Amino acid sequence: MKISCQKDQLHHAVQTVQKAIATKTPLPILTGIYLNAQGGKLELQATDYEVGISCTIDSNVEEAGTVVMSGRFFQEVVRRLPGDTIHIASSQEDRTIQITCGSSQFNLLSLPAEEFPVLKPISSDNTLTVKDDLLRELIKKTVFACAADEARPIFTGGLLEVEGPEIRMVATNTHRLALRQQPLLSAASNVKMIIPAKILHELARLLVAEDPQEVTLAWQKNQVGIQYDDVYINSRLIEGQFPDYRKVIPPSYSTAVTIQAEDFLDAVERVSLLARDGEYNVVKFNFKQDHVLISSNNPDVGKACETVASRMDGNELEIAFNAKYITDILKNIAADELVFSLNTSLSPASIKPVNDENYTYIITPVRTG
Amino acid sequence: MKISCQKDQLHHAVQTVQKAIATKTPLPILTGIYLNAQGGKLELQATDYEVGISCTIDSNVEEAGTVVMSGRFFQEVVRRLPGDTIHIASSQEDRTIQITCGSSQFNLLSLPAEEFPVLKPISSDNTLTVKDDLLRELIKKTVFACAADEARPIFTGGLLEVEGPEIRMVATNTHRLALRQQPLLSAASNVKMIIPAKILHELARLLVAEDPQEVTLAWQKNQVGIQYDDVYINSRLIEGQFPDYRKVIPPSYSTAVTIQAEDFLDAVERVSLLARDGEYNVVKFNFKQDHVLISSNNPDVGKACETVASRMDGNELEIAFNAKYITDILKNIAADELVFSLNTSLSPASIKPVNDENYTYIITPVRTG
Asked: How far lies B186's CA from each of A261, B160, B167, B309, B320, in Å?
């Protein structure tokens, strides 16, 4: 292999695939980045078997070929190289890959390219095409609600669902649930798949192109392939039955409280300072006619109490929540005002942006003594 | 105690003393911040017995008194409080301290103030007064050369020395040595003291006032007191005999190489990428008439090589150093050009800014196979 390419583009490609480089693995080949040069293109790939990412850039290919080298070192070298044009050449002789740029020359040892599990794009008729900003919005508004705990794998992913003219994503750890839905502009066939949160985070990080673009998902059995621009991502899907989220959403509420979102977030964050060490991070909310009293009590440290103005339609109520479940949604709500809807101190409540029926967040209260 | 004060000022005071709050200690009182209100002033103190810091701010004192509360929580609460004026009041009744600001109210449990080891300012005739920017410069140009390893305590501090009309600071870990000196504008008596690197780092962090100010050091036995503006720091000194740094500095060099400092730093950092895992971080420097060849070789990963333009006065030479010892000085040299002075491949070398006789950095080469 002998090629040259723009440093910025190569850096972009390395940044794109780097999250798929395996760090802890008994298979050294998975710690590598695979380079495949042919026909004016250079393709980079990395995979840890759970997720595989490929990114293709323009390249001046003097001699086609494939090589694999340490992902960690290739990444660091490319990031720091001076100059604009990078030259990469492999030498069969000493099994090294020469990377030159300006006055710098690196010779990285190559890994056996024939051992690299090259990504096989999924060929399937089951496809869905959506706008990148729509997909990013679905992910960012829900993925934080996934469980971190691997004990119940089904909750470590987000459910992507197309049903009739709507697309939605749902995530839950059984104590709280986030649902974001959006009408689809063009018809699509119904689908349900659970994508690992790790891949969703990665997708949200990658889908930041300046120009709007389309993302195509193709799936087959327990695999999904995601294609946009010069990037292809292959991920396993989480198998199993996602719980029926409709049953979790209360059909109606007896009380609705409207609050400034930013003031509320600041106040809950302050009060939760003294709840932090306590079990479940418990913060109490005392909803009054024209204000909410937010309080915490940590026997080892002290007490905190805040008042935030609000407008109530319904009945006064005292209820306790895990503070983190409240601040998580407030950081993602992107609205000036929110509606906190409640029934009783022991039943699930909802937080929504004012006038937005497409975003639903349900939290289960904490029973206090 | 009952007082009010400006939030910004209280935040500044908490930030100033916070590094002295003990984190791992069998004595809970040392995890606290001590507040002493009287005569229009509020003094904050924290100490871990090795270092004690006090900061005094203006305050509206309605009722004088002293309290101690959890440093960690007080710090977090003050940082996040809304509004401009903070009210603090202690209640004997339930042993809590009430902190109110805007719509927020915190009640932190108090610690027994009578147990707090209140700082005793050092009263001594042994004093030295210097400008803050001079002291900061002495510290920043040398402290990075201290040993991190506590095995030989003498090398974990910087030597502050006044001798005749000069003040200097020296730090070494026995493999490299940094010396910064400066003429003193006013006469001072001779002194030698070894201040722990931890305190020096803290001082450099704190000495950033916009207006120039004077810092007064007073010492007695193994203690030094440092006073400036509204801050007082009390620290132990490191006991023992600092090695004679003059013996470490070669009297002359056979070769002098002039190099652009920034280019050299970038090149050494890149080449050291492939030395990182190797023993001692070894990077080789091959000084030629008009350039330096910088190279590394890591048998597990590969090789790197860079060329940087230079001007030589003397003889060509190949020599190896721990890359970190080179990049450390290059990051602190604050000069466009440096002079690398050498004798042989096995003798200590020096790096200095061009035309600055007040800054000396000596490094011992690594013997390579």
From this structure: 59, 17, 11, 43, 43
Closest chain B residue to A277 measured between Cα atoms? B73
Which of B94, B100, B273, B293 should one mutate to test binding to chain A, selecting the residue with the greatest count of A CBs within 10 A? B273
A280 pLDDT higher than 80: no
Give the pLDDT score at A324.
94
CA end-to-end span of chain A, whole Å? Answer: 70
Backbone angles phi, psi at A84, to 5 degrees: -110, -35
B98 in contact with chain A, both atoms CB, cutoff 8 A = no
Closest CA to A174 of A329, A351, A333, A348: A348
User: Is the per-residue pLDDT at A187 higher than 80?
Assistant: no
CB within 8 Å: B106 and A82 = no
Instruction: Write out residues in chain B with pLDDT < 50, as ranges.
Output: none
A270 touching B, CB under 8 A? Answer: yes
Residues of B in contact with A288 (CB under 8 A): none
**Using CB atoms, which residue from B77, B107, B270 is nearest to A104?**
B270
Condensed to tens digits (0 to 9), the pLDDT of residues A37-80 reads 999 999 999 999 999 999 999 999 999 999 999 999 999 999 99
| Contacts with A77 from chain B: Cβ below 8 Å | 270, 273, 304
**CATH number, domain A252-363, options 3.10.150.10, 3.30.365.10, 3.20.20.140, 3.40.50.970:** 3.10.150.10
Position A211 scores a pLDDT of 86
- Indicate the helix (H) or strand (E) that contains B45: strand B41-47
B-facing residues of A in 305-364 (CB < 8 A) are 305-308
From-to residues of CATH 3.10.150.10 in chain B? 2-115, 127-246, 250-363
Say whether residue B164 is in contact with chain A using an 8 A CB cutoff.
no
Q: What was the pLDDT predicted at B294?
A: 98
B109 → closest Cβ in A97, A267, A301? A301
Element (H, E) at A242: none
Q: Are strands B282-287 and B317-322 parallel, antiparallel or unpaired?
A: antiparallel
Fold observed for domain A2-115? DNA Polymerase III; Chain A, domain 2 (3.10.150)
pLDDT at residue number A157: 97
Task: Identify the residue among B68, B90, B103 best suited for mutation to test binding to A, counting A beta carbons within 10 A and taking the highest.
Answer: B103
Cα distance between residue A355 and residue A336, in whole Å: 11
pLDDT at B368: 82
Nearest CB to A301: which of B103, B108, B269?
Answer: B108
3 state SS of A132: helix
Confidence (pLDDT) at B359: 97
Domain formed by B127-246, architecture: Roll (3.10)
CATH class of B250-363: alpha beta
Distance CA A62, CA A200 (A): 37
Q: What is the pLDDT of residue B243?
A: 93
Check CB contact under 8 Å for A303 and B104. no
Residue A279: per-residue pLDDT: 64
* Lowest-confidence region among A85-99, A312-326, B104-118: A85-99
Query: pLDDT exceeding 90 applies to what percent of chain A?
Result: 87
Q: Which DSSP letter does residue A17 get?
A: H
A293 contact B CB<8A? no
Q: Are B137 and B107 in contact (CB under 8 A)?
A: no
Cβ-proximal residues to B151 (8 Å cutoff; 6+ apart), any chain: none
What are the chain B neighbours of A109 within 8 Å (beta carbons)? 300-302
Q: Where in chain A is the domain with CATH 3.10.150.10?
A: 2-115, 127-246, 252-363
Chain A neighbors of B81, CB-CB under 8 A: 270
